[in-house]
Specification:
Strand order of the largest sheet: 3-6-7-10
Family: Belongs to the acyl-CoA dehydrogenase family.
Catalytic activity: a 2,3-saturated acyl-CoA + A = a 2,3-dehydroacyl-CoA + AH2
Distance between the termini: 51 Å
Strand content: 15-25%
CATH architecture of the largest domain: Up-down Bundle
GO biological process, one term: fatty acid beta-oxidation using acyl-CoA dehydrogenase
Cofactor: FAD
GO molecular function: fatty-acyl-CoA binding; flavin adenine dinucleotide binding; glutaryl-CoA dehydrogenase activity
Order of helices and strands: HHHEEHHHEEEEEEEEHEEHHHH
Radius of gyration: 21 Å
Largest sheet: 4 strands, mixed
Structural class: alpha+beta
Shape: globular
CATH class of the largest domain: Mainly Alpha
């Protein structure tokens, strides 16, 4: 019987290097992360520093960046690694994405040479943790409304405000903070031991539990002029970082979908209902077939976007297409696979409900489905319907 990827001959579309990176990431994830993830999820925690250092040893952090200790892979290779990490859990891919495609990318794309040398090698190794502080309690889908503000006092900057839903916020060594200034929205590198900085872990989550989420506050946080990201001006800069992270989600969500489908297929083959395997019933096969088709289409879309990114021609609207489609379909696959597992599907003995719950968050963060629909709609009609 063909596997899901064999059904669509996915491997024939990959280079030898891409297959090697995907295989290495899959083996690492299965051996080092898989045995622990249900316990981490149930406990609502993640050993971020230990996992980050393991990611660093494998070259997963900022892997598509060049120099400064980064692996310098292609975008497609990075996407395939995201797929294998999220096949274990979305929280683990979030750690990888926030470190590499948000915090590290912000420094890489907009920082000074001194800032890059100071932070990127240690972050690539997982020895220093970064977070990305854009979202505020009252401004999620509309980051341009942010109230966090920075003003100049002599040669220093003084930062005040709050941020929310910040992955790794309580564990980070440096926060990439976006604030409104007299010169528009600017980015700052804030060491988290700076006086006036505070981080509080957000508990009581029902999704993405194997991930550390925090609220941040800044009370007259004084920063030297060297903390300013010199090449980041306006909202385009943080949105550019988000586009990098969304690209990883396009691939990663398909990893979660694959795990759900593989689990449901194996379960249906061994679970007997009315004296024959559950897999022998037409309704079960219809669910599996529909899910497999959407999975295959999603992976093909991800690979196409990866090739576009590697050629330098990928647009933000195309990333929105990938994020909207693949997360939405992955969530649908997870929900349908849960029904195949019946009551067993709601337990942590199987990964399906955990993935379904996580994907509810992935559907929302880094642009809700509604936001991406409006991005695509504006691209096709020329009309801005956000307001």
């Amino acid at each position: 019987m063909p596997s899901l990827t064999e059904l669509f001959a996915i491997d024939t579309l990959l280079t030898d290097d891409e297959r090697q990176i995907q295989s290495s990431a899959r083996a690492f994830a299965a051996q080092q992360l898989g045995p622990h993830i249900s316990d981490w999820y149930e406990a609502g925690t993640l050993p971020v520093r230990e996992v980050a250092q393991e990611f660093g040893r494998l070259g997963l952090l900022g892997m598509h960046l060049h120099g400064y200790g980064c692996a310098g892979t292609t975008a497609t290779e990075y996407g395939l690694a995201c797929m294998e990490i999220e096949a274990i859990d979305s929280g683990l891919r979030s750690l990888m994405s926030v470190q590499g495609s948000l915090a590290m990318y912000a420094i890489y794309a907009y920082g000074s040479e001194e800032q890059k040398q100071q932070w990127l090698p240690q972050m690539a190794a997982g020895d220093k943790i970064g977070c990305f502080a854009l979202t505020e309690p009252d401004f999620g889908s509309n980051p341009g409304g942010m109230r966090t503000r920075a003003y100049q006092d002599g040669s220093d900057w003084v930062l005040n405000g709050t941020k929310m839903w910040i992955t790794n916020g309580t564990l980070a060594d440096v926060a990439v903070v976006w604030a409104r200034t007299d010169d528009g929205i600017r980015g700052f590198l804030v060491p988290t031991d700076t006086p006036g900085f505070a981080a509080t872990e957000m508990k009581r989550k029902l999704s993405l539990r194997a991930s550390v989420t925090a609220s941040l506050s800044f009370d007259e946080v004084r920063l030297p002029s060297s903390a300013l990201l010199p090449n980041a001006r306006g909202l385009r800069a943080p949105l550019g970082c988000l586009s990098e992270a969304r690209f990883g989600i396009v691939f990663g969500s398909m990893g979660a979908a694959r795990t759900c489908l593989e689990t449901a297929i194996e379960y249906a083959q061994t679970r007997e209902v009315f004296e024959k395997p559950l897999a022998g019933y037409q309704l079960t096969q219809a669910k599996i077939a529909d899910g497999a088709v959407e999975f295959g289409k999603g992976v093909l879309l991800a690979l196409h976007l990866g090739r576009l990114k590697d050629s330098g021609s990928l647009t933000s609207e195309q990333v929105s297409v990938g994020k909207l489609n693949n997360v939405r379909e992955a969530l649908g696959i997870a929900r349908q696979c849960r029904t195949i597992l019946g009551a067993n599907g709601i337990t942590l003995d199987y990964p399906v409900m955990r993935h379904a719950s996580n994907l509810e968050t992935v559907l929302t963060y880094e642009g809700t489905s509604e936001v991406h629909q409006l991005v695509i709609g504006q691209a096709l009609t020329g009309e801005n319907a956000f307001r």
